[in-house]
Write a structure and sequence with these properties.
Length: 403
């Protein structure tokens, strides 16, 4: 009898996992439902999906699609439309794709009596843990429409930040590809044709010319070596990043990079403050909110320290006092958190801190891009200039000998 590995949510809403034996996937799901569990992931042991690990060609749902769905759902809920009818209407409006397929399954679960949060929790590839927790808190507090509105605003703002970063990276990446292509063309096509001029000459060549010629010969004869290293580095990097200790070292190194490290820290702080503030304002308990925020943060350095913060808060410590003990959290964030705790509006102060760090990140990104553009042009011109000088110097020396 086949064995299935499952991840599910219990009747209390906690995440559980384990193994179940069943003749088919459908029977396995029925067994889990009979035990009061809502399956969110089910894989047969030894199946292709199980062996594939994290690599998948499955296309995800964009933040724009998710924010638009959330906004529409908030409008329907605020208009007192029954949840099942609202999901049916949204399914009809949505174009065919992963989101529409997920919404059809969510509608079926709601028809079976599941709450919206539990129905969404069974689609973890689309609706993350923070999304589901906020929806659950909104249902419990009777303010689902307001929570969905805040969620939609947050998703739209995160998409704007992502678009800024993507737009900023387009120019340098394009310049790197164009500059690299020009250099490879000069070294593998132009230089070999000019070398014949120097081969019959007994004059000694300048050092810069010798270096350029050796690089040209290497690329002509062993071009496959750097190409193989580049291709092999991708799976090797992915394999290495499966180790938590190496990922922690990588994330720590990224924070220490000049210019980029400071910008990355601002981006992380903005996400931390905004997600935590949004969860707290939606009614999620602080311990659960800290746990979800830690999972949302990509950087392992911040994630590991947040575990210590959770332990101190669980023992009765204040959030601001716990954050103050680490240099990862600057005084502004600590001060706003302290003011929020004293005044009773911690979530509002955290959101303000998140907005402040997001603006600082945007300002730094604009300045960096303004500085990078002329530097990239200068670097490309310098590289091409070295090739030109390496070719012209021996030609000038030959002309002197002829004279």
């Amino acid at each position: 009898m086949p064995t299935f590995r499952y991840k599910a949510y219990s009747a209390t809403g906690s995440a559980v996992s384990g193994m179940v034996e069943a003749d088919s996937e459908r029977q396995a799901i029925q067994q889990l439902k009979a035990k009061g569990m809502l399956p969110r992931e089910l894989l047969e042991e030894g199946s292709a999906a199980d062996r594939s690990g994290s690599f998948s060609f499955r296309r995800g749902v964009s933040t724009d699609e998710l924010s638009l769905f959330t906004r529409r759902l908030a409008t329907l809920v605020a208009s007192s439309v029954p949840l099942f009818e609202a999901m049916g209407s949204l399914c009809e409006q949505e174009e065919s794709g992963p989101l529409r397929q997920a919404l059809v399954r969510v509608k079926e679960r709601i028809a079976e009596g599941a709450s919206l949060s539990r129905a969404l929790a069974a689609e973890p590839d689309i609706f993350g843990e923070s999304y589901v927790s906020m929806v659950a808190a909104g249902e419990a507090g009777g303010a689902l429409d307001a929570v969905l509105e805040r969620l939609a605003d947050f998703l739209e703002e995160q998409e704007q930040v992502r678009s800024k970063v993507t737009s900023a990276l387009v120019y340098p990446i394009l310049m790197i590809f164009v500059g690299g292509g020009v250099m490879i063309f000069l070294l593998t096509v132009v230089i070999p044709r000019i070398v014949t001029i120097f081969e019959n000459s007994k004059a000694s060549l300048p050092l810069i010319t010798i270096i350029v010629l050796k690089v040209s010969h290497f690329l002509q004869g062993y071009w496959w070596l750097p190409a193989s290293l580049i291709i092999a580095s991708v799976p090797l990097y992915r394999k290495a990043m499966k180790r938590d200790d190496l990922r922690l070292k990588r994330d720590a190194l990224l924070l220490k990079l000049p210019l980029a490290g400071g910008m990355l820290q601002r981006l992380i702080l903005s996400r931390f403050a905004r997600v935590l503030g949004l969860l707290l304002s939606s009614g999620v308990p602080i311990m659960r909110a800290l746990e979800i925020t830690g999972e949302v943060l990509v950087n392992r350095v911040y994630r590991s320290y947040l575990r210590e913060v959770m332990e101190e808060v669980a023992q009765g410590g204040s959030l601001s006092g716990s954050l103050k003990r680490s240099p990862l959290f600057p005084p502004l964030l600590v001060h706003l958190a302290s003011v929020g705790e004293k005044s009773g509006n911690l979530e509002e102060m955290l959101v303000k801190a998140g907005v402040a760090y997001e603006r600082e990140f945007s300002a730094r990104l604009t300045r960096l891009m303004g500085l990078m553009e002329p530097l990239m042009v200068l670097a490309m011109g310098l590289a091409v200039g070295i090739i030109v000088i390496a070719v012209l110097l021996p030609i000038f020396e030959l002309n002197q000998l002829i004279k």
